[in-house]
Amino acid sequence: MSQPATPAAWYPDPAGSGQLRYWDGTQWTEHLAPVPGTVPTETVTQAPASDPAQALATGAQQPGRRRRGLLIGGIATGAAIALVAGTLTVVAVTQAGGSPSNVAGVENLDDRYEWTQPMLGLERNHHFEVPAAYDLDAIAPDYVEPDPETGYYDRAFAVAVYTDPALTRRAEASVIQFDPGEPITVSAHEMETTVEDIRFKSAGLDEWGLHDEYFLVQRLDEDGTPLPKPRVTPFTVAHELEAPVASFSTDAATGDLRVRWNEVADATEYLVYTSSMDTENGFRVERVLATTAETEWTSADQAVENDGAPFVLTQNEDMRLFDGSSADNILAGWGDGGRTEYYDFGVIATDGTQYSPFRAYDALEVAGSLPYEIAFDASRNAKQWGPSGYVEGIENVQTSVYFTSLDGMTRATVATIDPAGVLDLGDRWVLPLMGRGTRVGEWVPVAKSSTPDVAAAVAAFNERALAAAPTTGGTAFTAVSGTVAEVGAGSKTAPETDLPVFGSSPMVTYLAKHLIAQTPVIDISDYASLPGAPTVSDALTEATYQNPYVLGVRGYELSEDGTRIGVQYEVTKAEAEQLQADIAAKVVEVVESVVTDEQAEAEKVVALNDWLTANAEYDHRALEAKDANGGQVVSGDEYAWRADGVLLRGSGVCASYASAFHALAAAAGVSSVVVAGDVLAGGPHAWNKVEADGVWRAVDVTWNDSPDANRYLMIADADFVDQAARVEDADWMVDSWLGDYATR
């Protein structure tokens, strides 16, 4: 079902002011207005010409999150705006022929919504009835604009169904009121799916079952009045086979994706599955990447080979996560924009007759930055051609390889030349220029007269390219398996700690306390099924990124039933306790030496940034050792990615700078977060955002520790330009809260 663009209008303020904020169609503005009926509307600040009263009737038309944003000018549009739906409530759902669901006393982890008791194991053809004493079609123009082509009014202002707990992905559903005043009927509209003659589900057009869970959201009272919070009813349907629990990791040396999952009882085969939503035409597009009897798969075979070359033309070939043109094509002048929305990965189990639903994993989080093909326009622009028509001298060969990643962005990585692949073609050497951490590359001709000793020149080039790489050095936290060994029941009690603990929800802080205490197996059964609970991956990665006293988490394993997490740590419990104590003491020492109670928040940020840049050095050796080790941190160098690196040793990479700054800021009373993403010219990176005087601003301490000192101090996201241009990942914070940290 198509989702029209969000119109300019007043909406509940995502900053939590309790007022309405104006959305101009592309971004939040500074204009505020009171909620009608609370204070006089004369207090509107510079009100745009639209009615604030309409803000309480926005429903699904509130500004939502477009993952990665549109592909514009080679740079994603920054931190996307989170789904803002925290000001509407609705009436109880009634099952067809049944009674209203229980809405009282439901414990939840996201109080922006009113959560009802889940409805589990419903029949595939189940339909819901929502009481509605109003005329749905008649009131629709008061809430939303019609689709300009079809004239259709999106009914999500009243009722909608989603497939993710963050309520960002719409399910295909039918929302119909047959006559004014009759209940609104909500039923499945998931198309029968046939790919390569394989039917994923034995369900008809009007049956649920493709996904393992759904979320029914109601936004209007029975009389058609918007209420303070949307009401959310999670539900599942009965199925014969369980959905496999998958985990994902990346081969740091090649950029290929690896997927693992648990064995499902009675299943004989598994389908590695990807899907996306065609938001213009309103149907789902599916693809089977592989069919296997094994419980793991790698995308190594998803490549278009290049005969005679040590590199491939494309890799991860069938996994492209953008619709339309890549950023490289747009910059070249022959692209017309693209979308990166609603892409999923998952695994479907089958016994040859029945098919399980699939657990949807956000493909952009899993694989968005993985390589796809050379960015031809960016690469062409990087060439320095000589009068011979070739590059004159290997010193003029570019030291970066530009590639288009699966999300359509243009990224760069350090160039390397494979000496064994050099071709001797008469008057020129043809060099295989490859990108580190990828399998893509291109041929570059160099005049033989300018480079007589090609072997020595290649060795010098590889050394020079590595030295010229930007100081990024971020690293990913990924699941390492799909099952957890039977090593114990797991702990359900969060250990007490005197150390600061950060988290956007009780589930995240619960996990963070366990990670700080080095709990080997964490029982999450009290949280995983609660309404509003984030995914395990989301909660774990936030707990790791946002807690500087979590030391050395290598990865995790999730039990088949999803109730226990096995965690692998880099250091022993005793080592962790000593490091945590030393970090805490150093934090107190630093803050007491450079911060005073009289300083404003912005002044504290500057003082802490300046202390770090004066007392820490970037650990180039650790980063180079990691690159030389196939992208894996060398044993003994783990400190360079933790807060103790720059705080206790005076040396670390960007992750260490960001984590240390976060610890110092918290002790100084400044709100901050660690942000992870990709510098388009260099790869994974970590930096910070801080809240000073009620406004979030970006701080990149790592890049401030340079001859161009403090250029990236208290700036807006949009100020990261040129060599510093970057995109944010989505794994440093639970998805539904990412938009709260957009700068302005």
TrEMBL record:
Domain Transglutaminase-like: 646-703
Originating organism: Agromyces salentinus
Membrane-traversing stretches: 70-93
The keyword Transmembrane helix is annotated on this UniProt entry: yes
Domain of life according to the entry: Bacteria
Pfam (any one): Transglut_core
Keyword tags: Membrane, Transmembrane, Transmembrane helix
Keyword rRNA-binding: no
InterPro entries attached to this UniProt entry: CAP/Cytokinesis_protein (IPR052557), DUF2510 (IPR018929), Papain-like_cys_pep_sf (IPR038765), Transglutaminase-like (IPR002931)
Residue ranges of the region described as Disordered: 43-63
Protein name per its UniProtKB record: Transglutaminase domain-containing protein
